[in-house]
Amino acid sequence: MSPPRGAAPREAGGAVGPDDVTYPLQARPAGSVAALDEVLVACRACPRLVAWREQVATVKRASFRDEVYWARPVPGFGDERATVLVVGLAPAAHGANRTGRMFTGDRSGDFLFAAMHRTGFANQPTSVRADDGLVLTGIRVTSPVHCAPPANKPTPLERHTCAPYLGRELELVGPRVAVVLGAFGWQALLATLDDQGWVVPRPRPRFGHGAEVRITHPDGRGLTLLGCFHVSQQNTFTGRLTPEMLDAVLLRARELGG
């Protein structure tokens, strides 16, 4: 995927300049998901994230030492007219930051896409690499932060800087339901909806597994948020999130999405 027109190609390890901090604002006029992706993958707005994603691609995990890492921002993946949008946290350092596709190449993705296959959203239960034939129907996955962060913890400033990408993706895809994986994504999505003029309750609804909140827009649009524990190993290996629990959320999303 090449940088957008008007943007100079950036080499890995290149310096982050003063113009980079406003780069995400170029997402706003993007007229299609493909155009949005072209802008997103060239972004170098967050110096800490740029340094980390590129460092990870150089100092690789031993099991991936022969692979070439993507090491750029990771765009959303799936149906561009999805009724259901899954909102995570950020790409995993040796998962999506390696493969270039959301939730692909790590245990979290294994858990998520297996559930999507069981509930009829995915044509196969595995997501190993970007060219493995996986197709999503009626559903799309994205995140509030599109670069892998150190310790899997983006800062509030990084989340705010990246917000235009999530906002424009919401406008272009137009989902009816958002399955939000974890409190970070929940807070980020509510903040983005607030910025876009949606009627977000005050105080803001709290995240919880199984939480269901209906948000409306003055123009008549509606979006239902469904809370779900994140598909991280911390939750799936301990049984805090089971396959049955995730399936129930996805089936509820399918029901609401129509």
Automatic annotation (TrEMBL):
Q: Which family does it belong to?
A: Belongs to the uracil-DNA glycosylase (UDG) superfamily. Type 5 (UDGb) family.
InterPro entries xrefs: UDG_Type-4/5, UdgB-like, Uracil-DNA_glycosylase-like, Uracil-DNA_glycosylase-like_sf
| GO process annotations (BP) | base-excision repair
This one is known as Type-5 uracil-DNA glycosylase
Q: Where is the composition biased (Low complexity)?
A: 1-13
| GO MF term list | 4 iron, 4 sulfur cluster binding; DNA-deoxyinosine glycosylase activity; metal ion binding; uracil DNA N-glycosylase activity
Q: Does the record carry Acyltransferase as a key word? A: no
- Region labeled Disordered — which residues? 1-20
UniProt keyword 4Fe-4S present: yes
Ranges for domain Uracil-DNA glycosylase-like: 75-250
User: Which Pfam families does the record associate with it?
Assistant: UDG
* Highest taxon above the source species: Bacteria
Keywords in alphabetical order, please: 4Fe-4S, DNA damage, DNA repair, Hydrolase, Iron, Iron-sulfur, Metal-binding
